[in-house]
Amino acid sequence: MEFCDMQCKYADWPKDDAVDGSGSCRTFQALYCKKKSQLVHKNHPCPDKVQQKDG
């Protein structure tokens, strides 16, 4: 089972500073999913996860 995290090629930091403190110390509960075009819960199961390639 794969989980939503920053290792996914679709994951990005939320653009809003008011999303659980994501604009400050990166203590956050949500990621922006470029594939779904919306915020998603960090560390929840994700059937769409694709690992980023190195380099």
Written account of the structure:
There is one protein chain. The chain has 55 residues and is an all-beta fold. Helices cover 0% and strands 18% of the residues. The chain has strands spanning 11-12, 30-33, 38-41. A three-stranded antiparallel sheet has the order 1-2-3, with no helix packed on it.
SSE topology:
Blueprint: E1 11-12, E2 30-33, E3 38-41
Antiparallel strand pairs: 1-2, 2-3
Summarize the structure in short:
The protein is mainly β. The chain has strands at residues 11-12, 30-33, 38-41.
Shape: globular
Decide which structural class fits the backbone.
Answer: mainly beta
Number of extended strands: 3
Helix content: under 10%
Mean pLDDT metric: 82
- DSSP helix count? 0
Strand order of the biggest β-sheet: 1-2-3
The largest sheet, given as strand count, sense and whether it forms a barrel, is: 3 strands, antiparallel
Which residues sit in consecutive blocks of at least 5 with pLDDT less than 50? none
Keywords:
single chain, 55 residues, mainly beta
